[in-house]
Design a protein that fits this description.
- Strand 8 and strand 9 form a beta hairpin.
- It is built from one helix and nine strands.
- The strands form two sheets. Strands 1, 2, 3, 6 and 7 form a five-stranded antiparallel beta sheet that branches. Strands 5-4-8-9 form a four-stranded antiparallel beta sheet, with no helix packed on it.
- Helices cover about 10% and strands about 60% of the residues.
- It starts with a helix and ends with a strand.
- The longest helix has 16 residues.
Length: about 140
């Protein structure tokens, strides 16, 4: 956020002075990880996103979880949301079967306003235990 404000002030100063400022390079990708545990069962969510204008655009993510016994698959559910005032807005939700590793590809329109508190929550379930890992988006 601080970098975006600084860039805006530089551009405003250049505009007032009658000069132009070259566009900044593509935003750097931010990567955050969170984990959870329920007894011997555990899950880990890694989320990648970038600051674009006044939003955070979620690029993708992956999860690891286990153990899963035999050929039994578990379930992982990903929910990306943000709070605005007292309301919670879900911008992406997906559930899928997993045996340990799952990659998530998200639409390029999956964004969270930079002025709101965003989170990505992955809930892991192996049939006998479950836990939720939460990554802040800020």
């Amino acid at each position: 956020m601080k970098t975006a404000v600084q860039a805006g002030l530089v551009a405003l100063g250049a505009l007032l002075a009658g000069t132009t400022v070259p566009a900044t390079a593509e935003a750097a990708t931010i990567q955050r990880t969170a984990s959870c545990h329920a007894g011997d069962f555990s899950g880990r969510l890694t989320l990648r996103y970038e600051a674009v204008g006044f939003d955070y655009r979620v690029v993708g993510g992956y999860t690891t979880s286990g153990p899963y016994i035999g050929d039994v698959a578990g379930k992982v559910s990903l929910r990306i949301s943000y709070r605005s005032g007292s309301a919670t807005h879900t911008v992406y939700s997906q559930s899928s079967a997993t045996t340990g590793n799952t990659n998530f590809s998200l639409p390029t329109t999956t964004t969270v306003p930079a002025t709101s508190m965003g989170t990505a929550a992955a809930t892991f379930d192996n049939g006998s235990a479950s836990c939720t890992a939460v990554v802040p988006i800020s």
